[in-house]
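Aggregate trends can hide what the representation actually does to any particular protein. In the encoding step, the backbone of a single protein was reduced to a row of integers, each denoting a local shape. The record that follows shows the chain in one-letter code together with its fold in token form.

***
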Amino acid sequence: MNFFKNALPRRAWLFSVLITLLASSPAISQNKSVIVFSAGSTTNAVTDIAALFSQTKGIKAVTSFASSSTLARQIDKGAPAQVYISANKKWMDYLEKQALIEPGTRFNLLSNRLVLIAPHDSTLSDVTIEKGFPLATLIGSGHMAMGDPDHVPSGIYGKKAMENLKVWESVKNKIVRSKDVRAALALVARGEVPVGQVYATDAAISAKVKTIADFPVDSHPAIVYPAAIIAGQKTPEARAFLLFLSSPEAGNIFKKYGFSVK
């Protein structure tokens, strides 16, 4: 009888310790979250990073991917983003000019490269990109897929490169203007177009395409991916995610997908 009298307080103590441990575990902290809007070209890398962040920090990272322009316009209209990763400076500048970026949080996160791709079974290979190269001949009677150069960063960079290389005028009427870089990649992967212009990181994730040429890095402005917290959203969770993007763990994931970390 005395044993049970002594055991009950101990059981109560053990139960209280268990409750404390569970309450501090990542699984119980999943009610905390951060909403991340990120450029479509970062889909694979940021998905992996968000999963690792949730696992190690106990904060659920909810991600949304589209072209940088689409995401910036959604944020401008009040979409509930907390962290934004753009594939170029233009759309981050667009938000910053409207005071939609939290001051002091913007930084350059990544860089990338432009490549020319073809379906994996194409006879095209080892193209040398130089001023006046025969891009129109490579396209033939078909079309070239690329992000819409009016607003999609990959397409903006690509058009600038082709203008500097003196080939844009010969191909501008053969362009399939895709809603984002992943849509351009998909067209080439399905064999619907003979060539496409995408980022090197996009080409690397698909076994259905092959890189046939790299655009010279001096043919276009430097490809920079800035990241920042949205104005009014500087929560502990948003700050934690932005900091995590610069961690060695996140850097290794970005590098695995072919990005250069700033």
Observations:
- The longest strand covers residues 33-39.
- The CA atoms of residues 224 and 232 lie 25 Å apart.
- The longest helix spans residues 2-23.
